[in-house]
Amino acid sequence: MSTQRSYTSDLDLLKGKVEMVHGSGGKAMAQLIDQLFLQAFSNPYLDQLNDQASFNLPPGKVVMATDSHVISPLFFPGGDIGALSVHGTVNDVAMSGAVPKHLSAGFILEEGFPLADLKRIVDSMAAAAEEAGVSIVTGDTKVVERGKGDGCFINTTGIGVVPDGIELGGDRVKPGDKIIVSGSLGDHGVAIMSLRENLTFETTIESDSQSLHDLVATMVEAVPELHCLRDPTRGGISATLNEIAQQAGAGMQIYEEAILVKPQVKAACEFLGLDPLFVANEGKLVAFCPADKAEHLVEVMRSHPKGAEAAIIGEVTEDSLNFVQMQTAFGGNRMVDWINGEQLPRIC
Amino acid sequence: MSTQRSYTSDLDLLKGKVEMVHGSGGKAMAQLIDQLFLQAFSNPYLDQLNDQASFNLPPGKVVMATDSHVISPLFFPGGDIGALSVHGTVNDVAMSGAVPKHLSAGFILEEGFPLADLKRIVDSMAAAAEEAGVSIVTGDTKVVERGKGDGCFINTTGIGVVPDGIELGGDRVKPGDKIIVSGSLGDHGVAIMSLRENLTFETTIESDSQSLHDLVATMVEAVPELHCLRDPTRGGISATLNEIAQQAGAGMQIYEEAILVKPQVKAACEFLGLDPLFVANEGKLVAFCPADKAEHLVEVMRSHPKGAEAAIIGEVTEDSLNFVQMQTAFGGNRMVDWINGEQLPRIC
């Protein structure tokens, strides 16, 4: 830490609250930055205390992704808004095949938010960033009056660099491609909804919130011919498949029996009236892969802890209407349309 | 626009409102993206509709800056949150000497926010981005329930590339450097406060909100030996000078008579009990320049419309206590300390 600034008293991280003055650009804001953010995130870029970070990047295509996080509640089984805000953006960067490098963090805090909660969130972000191999290089803090926010919103924006020879995108997906999912579906959304609805099950349903940078690195190294990766967050795998079908100008056929949903997630979905295909995930990916490489890719994914339950769940079809269809466990075929109504608000 | 997605009816941009479903990852969100954001921001990176943008950057040091904008009210004389969110981040990137290249945009919308207002904001962002020569390459939209936000918050994160041979930073500032300001101080903060307090003057006080990328490019080309640039936003020039004094391990001496404050801004400040040195600016910069290049730099700045009123306002001094002092119009010297209390909440 390069900072030498001195304050008359330390920030009260036990009982203190966020005040309007913490966003006003004066000494109180500087203290919040020094004693909370810099303590947790310290790295050579951030510690320069300029209004921007500067760094060199390895040669290659640069990738940029942004996500504002407004999840409610802020703390949940398997994670919190801090870790989630790192995982979400790291994953968006990684889905291009890129190695995530740096994150920015923008906080919008509500007056009265406990500093102890903020510290917990910030420490969780720092740990998630370290695990994902990214530095939080620049940041910003704003404070809004009580009733004009909801505790803590966090925007993270990430940049990364794509290794030579990798080119992924929805428009590269072709009829015949196999659709592979890295694990069970619906965990994150159901964990949050169960918490909101005060549902208890024999075992607590945990969010799958995690960074997939290392799984992706393993996959693109093994099968650089991969066509597309996408993380099925808001809107679940249904939104992802419909989006890609339209980008690719193709259809999708998936098989219900091939899709892994944990028994307690299935039970909670039935209770809550949710369809696991529409429920957000925060630590899973969908891969679109040329058919002749698909088995090998699944094998490679299964050798990685974050892809241990990877499976082929269907294939891309010729379909000018870009329909996504699912063969059900009973043998019928049903449309998997986009959700039209609100299913899960503030899930990330 | 590459999108071919079809909807049963168009978004009602006259009377429609933001609904929770616009943030849920389904069809309504896709429609908002297609018919509002893509229409305004269209560029080859964004139009790929991936969850991240990818692009090549020219060689050189990469710079990243982030800002969340929570200004209230959203529309004000001389600008709005849309243009401001571009200017703020473009300026943070430019203050490193970099050429700003790309922006991300993250929206946090409150349920019930008029789509017509959102369109006005988005169109204003698009125009500001075009003027600044940047593309909005990736984005994100979240919606929170009524009473959990305040209409519209916007995070922008920008990246740019520093031309060869330029290296700016607070730690490069040296005793003897001249302190140069690009124009009048206090316009933005006073415009917002006058609006909030319903003050009217003979002439409307307008925000100075503008991108300084072109002024900066002119400056670093003419005087690459420049030590540091900073835009005096929240906390005003007082916060900027105190921050840099601490980064440089030096003091600052400024001269009240050299500092330009417009008469109506001065009058409003007296009425509102504000000190123009503590009031936010959104289109001005402070430069720290070796003394032997300072006159030339001021001349160069004055040749540019955004620096027409540039002036030397003081110099960096040897001072281990890092005090910022101002010689007043009456000849005395007073401390220019950081603000400790809240002066202007939600000014950007």
Automatic annotation (TrEMBL), chains A, B:
It comes from Neptuniibacter caesariensis. PANTHER family: CARBAMOYL DEHYDRATASE HYPE (PTHR30303:SF0), HYDROGENASE ISOENZYMES FORMATION PROTEIN HYPE (PTHR30303). Residues 51-162 form the PurM-like N-terminal domain. Gene3D superfamilies: PurM-like C-terminal domain (3.90.650.10), PurM-like, N-terminal domain (3.30.1330.10). Pfam families: AIRS, AIRS_C. SUPFAM superfamilies: PurM C-terminal domain-like, PurM N-terminal domain-like. This is Hydrogenase expression/formation protein HypE. Residues 174-322 form the PurM-like C-terminal domain. The lineage of its organism: Bacteria, Pseudomonadati, Pseudomonadota, Gammaproteobacteria, Oceanospirillales. Belongs to the HypE family. One of its GO terms (biological process) is protein maturation.
